[in-house]
Write a structure and sequence with these properties.
single chain, two-stranded antiparallel sheet, 63% helix, elongated
Length: 190
């Protein structure tokens, strides 16, 4: 939610209040909005269903046009039924993969440096969909955190390497006028 923090900073909200505001928003946001992963999942399922309906309509039109011996018609019907069964199995497999991908992405969101890389490390064969839950996801996530800790972001409570401005928690060093004059090259005394 870094984007939200930036917007609030631009609006003039104090840094000390930002974390509290963002935390409150994180708690209430799921009550009013659908997570992006769930929206994408439903949108993909909708697209697939629309495509399937159009394909079925096309097949029915072909059946209406088919005139000939009843054996020919039966063969065509059998062929279409087989194709429909295969399409249904493919759809169910694709939907399962989409749900697993969404669950994995949601579980690692904001915790890793490269979500696509870490998502590819999960063994999807060992994951089982149980309604909206994914059984085995937490175990694999914990295992990855232990075996490949370098892929995961560290806690914010630990100091990060590099140069930091403000918020360090310590007192700034005491500098007197002579030291400031030396720093800025003004060594002339009045």
């Amino acid at each position: 939610m870094e984007w939200l923090k930036e917007l609030l900073k631009k609006a003039g909200i104090e840094d000390s209040k930002l974390d509290q505001i963002v935390g409150d928003i994180n708690k209430t946001l799921p009550e009013h909005f659908v997570p992006k992963a769930r929206y994408n999942e439903v949108a993909e399922a909708k697209k697939k269903l629309e495509t399937d309906v159009a394909e079925r309509d096309k097949q029915l039109d072909e059946l209406k046009k088919a005139t000939g011996a009843s054996e020919e018609l039966r063969a065509q019907i059998q062929k279409l039924q087989d194709e429909n069964r295969q399409a249904k199995e493919k759809y169910e497999t694709d939907l399962k993969n989409l749900k697993l991908s969404s669950a994995i992405k949601a579980a690692i969101a904001g915790k890793v440096h490269d979500e696509d890389l870490v998502a590819g490390l999960f063994d999807r064969e060992k994951l089982v969909l149980d309604g909206d839950k994914v059984v085995g996801l937490e175990e694999q996530l914990k295992s990855l955190q232990e075996s490949k800790a370098f892929l995961f972001k560290s806690d914010d409570s630990q100091p990060k390497p590099g140069f930091h401005i403000g918020g360090g928690g310590g007192q700034p060093p005491k500098v007197d006028n002579d030291q400031l004059a030396a720093i800025f090259g003004n060594t002339e005394q009045k």
